[in-house]
Backbone:
């Protein structure tokens, strides 16, 4: 008899909890507390499976509950978190505003700091993370600040916070421990330290077995190491469980690197079709993937700029600025690209790929010395930054 993985065990528990709560609601126990518990379990399941269909069902149920119950704080917070997850930042702020008591709550402050970070208010985000930690030094608050520090080049500070976060995690929260190990692995990966990355990913798998997200990260590492056949095989297994469009793109790009254009084209066409279907439904979370697709896969500058501008309207942070700058570069608009890239780098972010893009833009603008300096800085951060990577 096959022993269930940790992932399968937890998913089974959530399914039972959802079913029990649905039975209660069906029996007339549809009070605010029971409904909220049910919706949080639904959201948890969708987050665990990575299923957009489940998120859509959950969102519809949340909206129905809000219409029936009104602006119950826990419901408003759940809707805000869902909107934030799918890059609907304006909606997330409106959701929080529906329940004024959320403003001073730990959860409300957490999300507000995350929104500030995504909207390019870096000092506000940093002070928000630090203030929340002063009030509640929990593992999830520590990793928020760790992620901020990692992006801003404070690698030692980020690693210290990640380690402290792991110390705060109980033996019953092994999925949380695995997730922090993945973040530590990504930090090493962004600096080209593949052996250390693999060690973190293995620890994540040992702590919480059977999780597709760990396999997705491992597949990216295999691709970065040039082990394309192994990477494709693992990505195929993940896509069989979680049919994410960006993973189809990753497989397509790997096939291209392997010199298999027909197989690459098939996967890239599937990715593009899925991105398009998402946009047609009114979703916005794939705008940055479309920007990347047209900038680096199809190299269609006009389309890249189109989607980059849409993404930039949603969030004016270094990622959106850098993506728009790169799209403008692909479209031959070097002066505007240079201005936006300078704005992105002024945030303080230290990312090897962003610096490489900045170097190419400087070179196109005729600034060879500035380009050389940026290339050297990118290589110092990650000497392997031009290797395969997935577009998160």
Residues:
């Amino acid at each position: 008899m096959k022993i269930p993985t940790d992932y399968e065990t937890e998913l089974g528990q959530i399914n039972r909890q959802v079913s029990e709560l649905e039975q209660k609601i069906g029996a007339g126990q549809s009070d605010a507390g029971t409904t909220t518990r049910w919706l949080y379990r639904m959201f948890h399941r969708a987050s665990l499976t990575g299923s957009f269909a489940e998120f859509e069902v959950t969102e519809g149920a949340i909206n129905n509950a809000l219409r029936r119950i009104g602006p119950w704080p826990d419901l408003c917070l759940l809707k805000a978190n869902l909107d934030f997850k799918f890059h609907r930042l304006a909606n997330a702020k409106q959701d929080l505003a529906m329940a004024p008591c959320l403003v001073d709550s730990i959860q409300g402050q957490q999300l507000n700091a995350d929104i500030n970070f995504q909207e390019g208010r870096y000092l506000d985000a940093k002070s928000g993370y630090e203030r929340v930690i002063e009030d509640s030094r929990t593992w999830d608050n520590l990793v928020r600040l760790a992620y901020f520090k990692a992006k801003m080049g404070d690698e030692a500070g980020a690693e210290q916070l990640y380690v402290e976060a792991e110390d705060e995690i109980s033996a019953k929260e092994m999925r949380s421990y695995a997730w922090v190990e993945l973040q530590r692995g990504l930090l090493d990966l962004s600096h080209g330290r593949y052996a250390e990355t693999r060690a973190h990913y293995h620890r994540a798998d040992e702590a919480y077995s059977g999780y597709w997200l760990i396999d997705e990260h491992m597949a990216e590492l295999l691709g970065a190491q040039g082990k394309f056949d192994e990477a494709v095989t693992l990505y195929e297994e993940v896509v069989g469980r979680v049919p994410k469009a960006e993973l189809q793109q990753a497989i397509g790009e790997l096939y291209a690197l392997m010199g298999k254009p027909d197989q690459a084209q098939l996967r890239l066409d599937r990715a593009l079709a899925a991105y398009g279907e998402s946009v047609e439904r009114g979703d916005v979370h794939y705008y940055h993937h479309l920007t990347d697709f047209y900038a680096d896969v199809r190299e269609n500058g006009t389309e890249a700029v189109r989607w980059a501008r849409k993404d930039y309207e949603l969030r004016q942070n270094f990622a959106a600025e850098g993506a728009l700058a790169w799209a403008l570069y692909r479209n031959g608009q070097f002066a505007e690209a240079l201005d936006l890239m300078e704005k992105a780098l002024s945030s303080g972010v230290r990312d090897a790929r962003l610096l490489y893009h900045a170097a190419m833009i400087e070179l196109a603008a005729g600034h060879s010395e500035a380009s050389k300096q940026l290339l050297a800085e990118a290589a110092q951060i990650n000497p392997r930054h031009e290797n395969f990577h997935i577009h998160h």
Notes: The longest helix spans residues 6-26.
